[in-house]
Amino acid sequence: MARRWNGWGDDSYVKEVSPHGGALIRSVIGDCQALPDATLADVMAQVPASRLPQHPLISSDAEDRVRHARGQSFPDWLAMRSGKFGTFPDGVAFPESSSQVRELLDLARQHDFEVIPYGGGTSVAGHITPAASQRAILTIDMGRMNQLLDLNEESQIATFGAGTPGPQVESQLRARGYTLGHFPQSWELSTIGGWIASRSSGQQSLRYGRIEQMFAGGRMETLRGSLDIPTIPASSAGPDLREVTMGTEGRMGIFTEVKVRVTRLAEEEKFFVMFMPDWQQAKQAVRELIQQKIPMSMMRVSNAKETRAHAHLGTSESQFKLLDRYLRFRGLTDERCMLTFGVTGSRYQNRTSLKQIRQVLSAHGGVGGIIANMMGSIWAEGRFKFPYLRETTWQQGIAVDTLETATDWDNVDALMQDIERSLESALADEGEQAMVFTHLSHLYGQGSSIYTTYFFRCADSYEQTLARWKKLKGSASSVIAQGRATISHQHGVGKDHAPYLAAEKGELGMAVIRDLLHQFDPDKRLNPSTLLPDD
């Protein structure tokens, strides 16, 4: 795969936006004008001389440094497209073993430079973006540590190099009859070490769990030495070091070997779509399914705005009209909401689960049928392609970003409405309107995640477009921080969310986190300004 240097994923893949889908977006935000893109050659010419010592593991090549300078947050996107990167890493290392990572960390302490770990570069919260510093900056790319190192079939524990990306995790396990089952939307690019460092959640977490249920142990290289976490199924011996290290986003050390709990491949897996009469019926139905613990591998519920948007963006105009006529014939209006769900297991288990699921959904007015079932297969085929939409819309002058949170069921409606209102009104002083819609992507007995997408019009310059995003992001993040919710359910904290972390953790909690990180990195050379805003 040829990676885009200034955007998401495979440079050869294009996710088309249907004409009626594009018309829907413009009907809300207005006509758009694309901003000019910088060239790779222009950006490479800006890369300054390296401040790092020469070392056989470190490359100071300009293109390597450009390609590792940014992730996929919206500010990163604008930096890449405009060519105004600001800060580049002084070099990029490509270690192939834990001992080489250990060597690089020792070198960082000896020569007083900063270190940023790099997995797949998929960060949407500013985790890997270097901040301006008086010290040299080394980015450590873990991509060559990408192999299945061991598979203990008796205990079902697999050991991977931390730089193994999702497709290689699955292909190496499936060759042995196993799966990890961790499928974030960033799956094709993100790495197993990055999932743990940012406490990731996969699309099929109802069956396999979040990454914290999968992570069994492993090795982290720190400035204080190697930290080995044994694979014990359960322990009451004090705080869990797995939990202590997860979500630290490179501030404590760098995962080099990861041990995960794997599962035998299921006999059968299927995905379906049904439509509910309205949001309340949809939410009540999925809450009932989850709280009854009916086996499913995934369940997603889109509100009416997102249902309408996806029906336009994911179909041709003739397909959309056919679906719309069918659903209206079945009595569903513009308030209808789409449910996407999956079952994974034996054929017998799946038949039993599907019978129970359909009984609950039908009792709440759900409508399925052949057309809806076909949409389930379409979703499964393209479920990792939505991030490519940013490239297509960008070329039309349309900016798109997402944000997510999680809260208890009794707070879901109010928080979702407040988030959407904050985004829809954030640019009112400029006479601009954002197009906003939401789905619940991960469900729990206690509550749910809330995942919101927003489109807005690019301004006349990159600086003004960034200012618009800051208004949108700041407004919604403040609502979340004050709304009895987490600032991030699955994207992590990075630099973008760091100012809002204290609202969730509290004064004492923040002090504990600072003290923990200080123990491992008193000189703040590991990924500074990420997770915690540094003094």
UniProtKB/TrEMBL annotation:
Substrate binds at residue 390. The keyword Magnesium does not apply. The keyword Flavoprotein applies. GO terms for biological process: lipid biosynthetic process. Keywords: FAD, Flavoprotein. Residues 85-265 form the FAD-binding PCMH-type domain. GO terms for molecular function: alkylglycerone-phosphate synthase activity; FAD binding. It comes from the Bacteria. InterPro entries: Alkyl-DHAP_Synthase, FAD-bd_oxidored_4_C, FAD-bd_PCMH, FAD-bd_PCMH-like_sf, FAD-bd_PCMH_sub1, FAD-bd_PCMH_sub2, FAD-linked_Oxase-like_C, Oxid_FAD_bind_N. FAD binds at residues 117-123. The active site is at residue 451. Its cofactor is FAD. Belongs to the FAD-binding oxidoreductase/transferase type 4 family. This is FAD-binding oxidoreductase. It comes from Bacterioplanes sanyensis.
